[in-house]
Amino acid sequence: IMAMGLGGSYPGTTMLNINTSGNVGIGIANAGAKLHNFTQDVADVWISGYGTLAQNDWRAGHAMFVAQDNGLLISKANANNNTNRLFSLYHDAQGNAEFYMYDTSSNNKVYLNSSGDSFLNGGNVGIGTTSPDEILHVYNASAGDASVKIESKSGGDPTIYLTSQTANRQGIISFQDNGTNAGRIIYEHATDIMTF
């Protein structure tokens, strides 16, 4: 079995190599995978299944182009189809970007839509913390206040809803001092009484 190389525009430069293991190298003599693309260029390094050079005039270092209503799938190796999904990047029919993230059973747990509703259903969400205790945990590691801002445009009312899908439950706002309950505001739905 012979190795093959195709030269570049400079003498002694081999730009495309197929080694004795069947690996294909672009810009590298000893390809470490079935397809190994290597360059030290910092711009215009891209793979295109669709598009033209003019689409990369914003000089991204790495780029991949997909047509509308198509996407890019990153999957588990050696897993059956429809059980192997990890990440999906999608270019929808209207030209918007969508991002999907799947759990080990290929259930879509994270979905981000650049022009629509999104959701995070993989577990608790932490802002400023890597170990959130609740569905949403906001933590400020500095000495400043941990603040949440709700702002509406002119003519709208900033609103917080405490809603239960089961009848006769309570609405509770709890105040804690270093993790210990220090006070609460409770609304009793069954008796329509507010307790402080």
Tell me the distance between the termini. Answer: 84 Å
Q: What's the total count of β strands?
A: 16
Give the number of helices. 0
Give the overall pLDDT as a whole number. 83
Basic shape: elongated
Q: Main β-sheet: number of strands, strand sense, barrel status?
A: 5 strands, antiparallel
Radius of gyration, CA atoms, in whole angstroms: 27 Å
Q: Could you write a compact summary of the structure shown?
A:
With 196 residues, the protein is mainly beta. The chain has no helices and 16 strands. The strands form 5 sheets. Strands 7-8-9-10-11 form a 5-stranded antiparallel sheet, with no helix packed on it.
Write the layout of secondary structure elements.
Blueprint: E1 4-7, E2 14-18, E3 24-26, E4 35-37, E5 45-48, E6 62-65, E7 70-75, E8 85-91, E9 97-102, E10 108-113, E11 119-120, E12 125-127, E13 136-138, E14 170-177, E15 180-188, E16 193-195
Parallel strand pairs: 3-4, 5-6, 12-13
Antiparallel strand pairs: 1-2, 2-3, 7-8, 8-9, 9-10, 10-11, 14-15, 15-16
Give structural notes.
By secondary structure, the chain is mainly β. It has no helices and 16 strands. The chain has strands at residues 4-7, 14-18, 24-26, 35-37, 45-48, 62-65, 70-75, 85-91, 97-102, 108-113, 119-120, 125-127, 136-138, 170-177, 180-188, 193-195. The strands form five sheets. A five-stranded antiparallel beta sheet has the order 7-8-9-10-11, with no helix packed on it. Strands 1-2-3-4 form a four-stranded mixed beta sheet, with no helix packed on it. A hairpin with a 5-residue loop joins strand 2 and strand 3. The protein is elongated, with a radius of gyration of 27 Å. It starts with a strand and ends with a strand.
